[in-house]
């Protein structure tokens, strides 16, 4: 009977699984991937290493990392027919919707990717999507910008290759900017996993029906799109720009955020788990200062963001609700400095989260988790007989 069911909307206090991948402590602002602190990984590791760590559980040695890199490069071809699907979208299409569709469409061109019945088959599907997703990301952005779509350059590292695919201009030399590549690598590491957040739970529950990896990832991309989740990094920049156009009047937006009748939220603030600072926000804020400094960019938007943070930390509405800047608050300022269009910000989040989604999906399948099927408390009508149309 429904009295046996404990209701927990939003699963605020429900553990959906056991996992050995990511540990976070919301009170202490701790985040670790497979036991390694995020601060160390962000400083000392590179994104491909972190992807391997999350998925397979250990930091790779030289040979393992080399093989992983080569296996990914061997799969970097995306079927040219996929461009026909991309062509079907209007330029105004949001890149997250395009990417979710393309990721699902990839199955049609990689039918064996649904087979994960052996470690080898699972590994092949994993390196395929790690190789092809960045190409789809670059194609999606360049399509909107009316630029030719091309493949990467196998002589480059994983993140530099992504950056080149996104930014290489026709008949112009591509010159690597180490500051930008290092910052992008760090941002991707900081977004790589975050235990059972909305989009990861989505990837898990879709995969729990034994839908394929690519279909599960496509669902995760859709969940991440929402402005309460990954879509917040785009919403933050739009909010900061609105404040800037409004003469930098942060007080007006703080009041809107506190007004119960106003649906406006201070985007980039608050978190379900972090009730103290978000360790990623701290690192990204510092990186924003460094990157803009190194690039010689004075962005008034960064000052507005810092002003908002300062006000919120002194405002008892926010302090009482333990609302602090989260991972999405400063990240867009760096993406903007890199020349990434604002509607591509959440795509950058998805690019970073890809290895985390894969790791969580793989763990769920290896542990043979049951199909996800929550219960409910029924509050609808009691039993009643059908009424024919003539009597309604
Ligand atoms: C991510 O889960 C993850 O780990 C996610 C993520 C990841 O790495 O995967 O960390 C990435 O999604 C970060 C969050 C990005 N979202 C935003 O920045 C959007 C703004 N934030 C909020 O919508 C909200 O804080 C959430 C969605 C992040 C958390 O929502 P909760 O835990 O359900 O909290 P809530 O909505 O119940 O809010 C609690 C109270 C409410 O006030 P009361 O009804 O108690 O009076 O705090 C208020 C809310 O109104 N509140 C805010 C607010 N966030 C919460 N008020 C103003 N501005 C905000 N940003």
Automatic annotation (TrEMBL):
<dbReference type="InterPro" id="IPR010953">
    <property type="entry name" value="Citrate_synthase_typ-I"/>
</dbReference>
<dbReference type="GO" id="GO:0005737">
    <property type="term" value="C:cytoplasm"/>
</dbReference>
<comment type="similarity">
    <text>Belongs to the citrate synthase family.</text>
</comment>
<dbReference type="InterPro" id="IPR002020">
    <property type="entry name" value="Citrate_synthase"/>
</dbReference>
<feature type="active site">
    <location>
        <position position="328"/>
    </location>
</feature>
<dbReference type="InterPro" id="IPR016143">
    <property type="entry name" value="Citrate_synth-like_sm_a-sub"/>
</dbReference>
<dbReference type="GO" id="GO:0006099">
    <property type="term" value="P:tricarboxylic acid cycle"/>
</dbReference>
<protein>
    <recommendedName>
        <fullName>Citrate synthase</fullName>
    </recommendedName>
</protein>
<dbReference type="GO" id="GO:0036440">
    <property type="term" value="F:citrate synthase activity"/>
</dbReference>
<keyword id="KW-0808">Transferase</keyword>
<comment type="pathway">
    <text>Carbohydrate metabolism; tricarboxylic acid cycle; isocitrate from oxaloacetate: step 1/2.</text>
</comment>
<dbReference type="InterPro" id="IPR019810">
    <property type="entry name" value="Citrate_synthase_AS"/>
</dbReference>
<dbReference type="InterPro" id="IPR036969">
    <property type="entry name" value="Citrate_synthase_sf"/>
</dbReference>
<feature type="active site">
    <location>
        <position position="271"/>
    </location>
</feature>
<dbReference type="InterPro" id="IPR016142">
    <property type="entry name" value="Citrate_synth-like_lrg_a-sub"/>
</dbReference>
<dbReference type="Pfam" id="PF00285">
    <property type="entry name" value="Citrate_synt"/>
</dbReference>
<dbReference type="InterPro" id="IPR024176">
    <property type="entry name" value="Citrate_synthase_bac-typ"/>
</dbReference>
<keyword id="KW-0816">Tricarboxylic acid cycle</keyword>
């Amino acid at each position: 009977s429904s009295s046996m069911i404990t209701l927990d909307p939003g699963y605020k206090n429900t553990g959906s699984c056991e996992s050995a991948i990511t540990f976070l402590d919301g009170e202490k602002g701790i985040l670790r991937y497979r036991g390694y602190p995020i601060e160390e990984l962000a400083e000392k590791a590179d994104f491909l290493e972190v992807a391997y760590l999350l998925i397979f559980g250990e930091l790779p040695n030289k040979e393992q990392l080399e093989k992983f890199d080569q296996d990914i490069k061997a799969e970097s071809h995306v079927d040219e027919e996929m461009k026909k699907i991309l062509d079907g979208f209007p330029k105004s299409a949001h890149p997250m919707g395009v990417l979710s569709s393309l990721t699902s469409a990839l199955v049609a061109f990689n039918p064996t990717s649904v087979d994960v019945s052996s470690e080898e088959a699972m590994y092949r599907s994993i390196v395929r999507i790690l190789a092809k997703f960045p190409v789809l990301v670059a194609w999606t952005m360049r399509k909107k910008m009316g630029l030719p779509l091309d493949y990467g350059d196998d002589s480059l590292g994983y993140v530099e290759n992504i950056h080149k695919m996104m930014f290489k201009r026709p008949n112009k030399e591509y010159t690597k900017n180490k500051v930008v590549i290092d910052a992008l690598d760090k941002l991707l590491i900081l977004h790589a996993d975050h235990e059972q957040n909305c989009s990861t739970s989505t990837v898990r529950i879709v995969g729990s029906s034994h839908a394929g990896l690519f279909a599960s990832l496509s669902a995760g991309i859709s969940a991440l799109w929402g402005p309460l989740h990954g879509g917040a990094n785009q919403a933050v920049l739009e909010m900061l720009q609105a404040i800037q156009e409004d003469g930098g009047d942060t007080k007006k937006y703080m009041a809107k955020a506190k007004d119960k009748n106003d649906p406006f939220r201070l985007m980039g603030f608050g978190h379900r788990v972090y009730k103290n600072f978000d360790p990623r926000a701290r690192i990204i804020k510092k990186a924003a200062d460094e990157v803009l400094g190194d690039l010689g960019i004075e962005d008034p938007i960064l000052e507005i963001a810092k002003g908002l943070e300062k006000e919120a930390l002194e405002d008892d509405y926010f302090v009482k609700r333990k609302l602090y800047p989260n991972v999405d608050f400063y990240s867009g300022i760096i993406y903007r400095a890199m020349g990434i269009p604002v509607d591509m910000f959440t795509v950058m989040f998805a690019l970073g989260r890809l290895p985390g989604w894969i790791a969580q999906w793989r763990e769920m399948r290896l542990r043979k988790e049951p199909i996800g099927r929550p219960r409910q408390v029924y509050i609808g009508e009691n039993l009643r007989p059908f009424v024919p149309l003539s009597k309604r």
